Amino acid sequence: MTDAACTVLLVEDSPGDEFLLVAELERSPLVGRVDVARDGQQALDYLLDHERELPRLVLMDLKLPRIDGHEVLTRLRAEERTRMLPVVVVSSSAEHRDVQLAYSSGANGYVRKPIRAEALSESIQRLLGFWLAVNETYA
Q1: Among 2, 36, 96, 126, fewest CB within 10 Å belongs to which?
Q2: Which of 17, 8, 98 is nearest to 47 (CA)?
Q3: Contact by Cβ (8 Å): 36, 58
Q4: 49-58 average pLDDT score
Q5: pLDDT tens-digit profile of 62-103?
Q6: 3-class SS at 137?
Q7: Which structural domain, as residue segments, surrounds residue 45?
Q8: Is residue 85 part of a domain?
Q9: Where does the pLDDT of residue 13 fall: very low under 50, low under 70, confident under 90, or very high at 90 and above?
Q10: How many CB atoms lie within 10 A of CB 109?
Q11: Any bridge partners for residue 8, and if so which?
């Protein structure tokens, strides 16, 4: 089911990566709004606020200030409100340990940030196509 007004939460502490990812997300007709949290605590405050509607998708880096991405995932999966929320890790790390820990913490997917802008664009658009257009949501 597609919804032209889908909100995506990007959790990213690097200003350069934030700029590139937000620009790519905003290019997609599947995304109505992009919200940004710049550390793990901001992400938890946003997602655990019962007065705020949840986004359709969270894209999150792992190496975040204040609370790292693994801890954010663990806390989200412990809460009824966010247990089923799709969270895809977008990280520059290709270390097997990071991938394994992300999935064991509750990530729904893991995408490595490509070095080239063209590859990043293709990865993000394919990711959005699946999570926002093809995948059936629980809500």
Answers
A1: 96
A2: 8
A3: no
A4: 96
A5: 999 999 999 999 999 999 999 999 999 999 888 999 999 999
A6: coil
A7: 6-134
A8: yes
A9: very high
A10: 16
A11: 34, 57
Asked if 112 contacts 88 with a C-beta cutoff of 8 angstroms, the reply is no
Lookup: tokens for 116: 């080239």
Q: How many CB atoms lie within 10 A of CB 63?
A: 14
In a domain, 139, yes or no: no
Q: How many Cβ atoms are within 10 Å of 50's Cβ, its own excluded?
A: 6
CATH number at residue 33: 3.40.50.2300
Residue 47 has which token pair? 């997602």
**90, two tokens:** 């977008």
Q: What is the total count of domains within the chain?
A: 1
Q: Tell me the three-class secondary structure of 32-94, residue by residue.
A: EEEEEECCHHHHHHHHCCCCCCCCCEEEECCCCCCCCHHHHHHHHHHCCCCCCCCEEEEECCC
What one-letter code names the amino acid at 58?
A: V
4: confidence class by pLDDT, cuts 50, 70, 90:
low
In a domain, 1, yes or no: no
pLDDT over threshold 50, residue 1: no
- Report, as an integer, the average pLDDT of 93-119: 90
